[in-house]
Known about the structure:
By secondary structure, this protein is an alpha/beta fold. It has helices at 2-14, 19-31, 33-38, 41-44, 47-51, 100-116, 137-151, 170-184, 207-222, 239-250, 273-282, 288-293, 331-339, 355-364, 371-374, 377-391, 397-421, 428-447; strands at 56-65, 71-82, 88-94, 122-128, 160-164, 231-234, 254-255, 257-260, 263-266, 298-301, 319-321, 344-346, 367-369. The strands form three sheets. The chain has a five-stranded mixed β-sheet. A five-stranded parallel β-sheet has the order 7-6-11-12-13, sandwiched between helices.
Amino acid sequence: MPYVQKIIDDLKKFNPAQVEFHQAATEVLVSLRPLLEKNPVYQKNKILERLTEPERQILFRVSWQDDAGDVQVTQGCRIQFNSAIGPYKGGLRLHPSVTTGIIKFLGFEQIFKNSLTGLAIGGAKGGARFDPKGKSDGEIMRFCQAFMTELFRHVGPTIDVPAGDIGVGGREIGYLYGQYKRLSASHDGVLTGKGLNYGGSLARTEATGYGSVYFAEEMMKERGESLEGKSCTVSGAGNVAIYTVEKLLQIGAKPITVSDSKGMIHHAKGIDLAALQQVKEVERASLSRYKELCPDAVYVPLSEYPKDGNAVWRVPCQAAFPSATQNELNAADAEALLKNGCTCVCEGANMPSTLEAVDLFLKAKIAFGPAKAANAGGVSTSQLEMSQNASMQQWTFEEVDAKLRGIMQGIFKNASETAREFGAPGNLVMGANIAGFRKVADTMLALGVY
């Protein structure tokens, strides 16, 4: 479709070097072709052109002082992509790899992910090139305070509600929220992922990992199968991966790998959740420490990874849960997974598979859960936190978990039925993209040109 290709070409021309954004936009736009052919009103009203251009891009300087008394300077940003169906919602990422292109891809994906939840939230993302690893609590606090000093004027409980992402956990959210309260003199739900003592929600920590497994269960159920007893590879060792492992263990599956920036663990008898949490949540150590706690596990350092991919995906499994970061699973990894008998891939991270890998999964007709559907559990529970804040209540863990499961089941049903509607049963990439897009696009049409 020439119209779609022109938009992709223009994105690459006018947003040079933002390769992650190009990738995310290409995946969505190409899969929308059947809908655009059926409904020319979207093309006539330039919905794609409007949707791929952020409503607002905020760049600001973050100056802070380290423990040695030296001033450090970096750039912070918040990209508010689309607010058609509700206030902007999306995480903040603190990592040395952060670029505008990465934040734009994350914000663009967030539009459709948030739409799929069925909740009234728009899409945004933000962050900075700052690495919390190796920093003292004082340095992290001063950075977060400096960051919020610039951001606070652009957010609000009905305007933009940031959350955590890579590098932003409960500690960072606390420092950010404390500075927001100081500057705004208000106590409201302007951040999610807060501590339970000041407006946080039970089950928020577990939500993305749990939600990914709930989505995988729905995919397997539709095929008359189950995850119970299946060997599962999981990448990452952060919040998403840990609680993916926990939920897999709870349903009787066997997670056998986790990974971090220095290497991976292969534990054939199953990951020891208590040891993993001790290493990553208590000691904040490398996974080589897990090997010390569980001597029967195998530790593979990054230097021994295959040159053409990720060692995690070379471990034979029946289901895979990429839960670390973008583009961690390439075509060579996909081929290895399929060759080794993997029949289910469920994305817990944001865009962890390359376009070539996704194509291989779709052609093989395995159960493939794209990130914008499968990892929507976190933002869904963030919106549930917003609801609790607005009503000044706190629901039980069981109440929130039940709502989360229902949301993930609804996302799967919506994506699956939409895929069938457009003659591509089982293609949840197409189903999720069209379903997410259609709700936002129809709302934009109803609101007029803005």
